[in-house]
Specification:
The protein is α/β, with parallel strands linked by helices. It contains 14 helices and twelve strands. The strands form two sheets. The chain has a six-stranded parallel sheet, with helices on both faces. Helix 1 crosses helix 2, helix 1 (4-11) packs across helix 3 (30-43) and helix 11 (223-236) crosses helix 12 (251-260).
Length: 335
């Protein structure tokens, strides 16, 4: 690793002069500045984060706040994280991943230091207790998710209500009249997590609009739980022919459970989902789905944050329209 002393030796100046040339805190001659800049380029020197923070009052670090609470599907969270990190690097920023459930205390501790310049916050609840603090912070923030009252915040997310409606509308067009939503784990609903609540709202509204019989079943994250929910659904709705799944971890186990119970997909039962495309395509019967655009959401969140850091006006709300891809898991209802 190239050090500031290496740059000083190459430029023929003292390390403090290199520091002044890079920070601009003291005047130096144009000739000396030129020699320092040439040495920096030749050696590929990059000041470490602490030095940049001292020189510019900025760390070039963004915080990604995603508390790993019960019911969170970590593989999908990591897709978001990879997108945020990749995009941040394009803007010469690093990312600090904060996963502990600390509420206001954790946010304030990070925001009150020079550790990060701005925050991206995930796993947003409808009545999120972090919102008053986020509204009051001097450091900018972007939420991946929409609380019930988003005023004064910058939010970006998939329109989950419209996503659920798209799944139900697709089933309705195929003639299905009895449908069910296999949803997130119960604790996600207890927390009133925003995206899960909006999926339920969209599913119920679309089913009612189409005159369908519908039920909502939360599902724990386990293959055995998928089997139990499949059995419960068939007892409660013997005429069930359409299912919407909003629980990535149980999508494949659920399809397998229905088939073990004697229902062919899609011959007897059409299955749709809200999930990443790669997951929908990997199931033995590829699943008709609304894509969860993790890459686009992560990119948009960073771009909004970079705009705010630059003082550029950005929209308060960015809602991505759902995109439904029809695959082999759905078919017209048989008479």
């Amino acid at each position: 690793m190239v050090k500031i002393t290496d740059v000083a030796r190459r430029a023929g100046v003292s390390p403090s002069t290199v520091s002044y040339a890079l920070s601009g805190k003291r005047p130096i001659s144009e000739e000396t500045r030129r020699r320092v800049e040439e040495a920096v380029r030749e050696l590929g020197y990059r000041p470490h984060a602490g030095a940049r923070a001292l020189a510019s009052s900025k760390s070039n670090v963004l915080a990604l706040v995603v508390p790993l609470r019960a019911g969170i599907h970590v593989p999908v969270v990591m897709q978001f994280a990879v997108s945020v990190v990749t995009t941040a690097r394009r803007y010469d920023h690093d990312v600090l991943l904060l996963t502990q459930e600390e509420g206001d205390d954790g946010l304030r501790r990070v925001a009150d230091t020079a550790l990060v310049d701005a925050l991206i916050v995930m796993d947003v609840q409808l009545d999120d207790p972090r919102l008053p603090l986020l509204r009051s912070l001097e450091r900018p923030s972007v939420l991946i998710g929409f609380p019930a009252e988003p005023a004064g915040l910058t939010c970006v997310d998939l329109d989950f209500r419209a996503a659920a409606e798209a799944c139900v509308d697709h089933l309705a067009r195929l003639g299905h009249r009895v449908v069910a939503l296999v949803g997130s784990p119960p604790e996600v609903y207890v927390r009133r997590t925003a995206f899960a609540q909006r999926v339920v709202q969209g599913f119920t509204a679309a089913a009612d609009r189409a005159g369908m019989s519908s039920r909502v079943h939360p599902c724990e994250v386990a293959p055995a739980a998928a089997r139990r929910v499949a059995e419960q659904l068939l007892r409660a709705q013997p005429a069930l022919t359409g299912v919407v799944v909003h629980n990535e971890a149980v999508l494949e186990p659920l399809v397998e459970a229905f088939e073990q119970l004697g229902l062919r997909v899609p011959g007897d039962l059409s299955v749709t989902a809200i999930c990443p495309d790669d997951l929908a395509e990997s199931v033995r019967v590829p699943v008709t789905s609304v894509a969860l655009p993790t890459a686009e959401l992560g990119t948009r969140a960073v771009e909004l944050l970079v705009g705010k850091l630059a003082g550029t006006p950005v929209p308060g709300a960015t809602s991505l329209r759902p995109r439904l891809t029809v695959r082999a898991s759905t078919a017209p209802r048989t008479p």
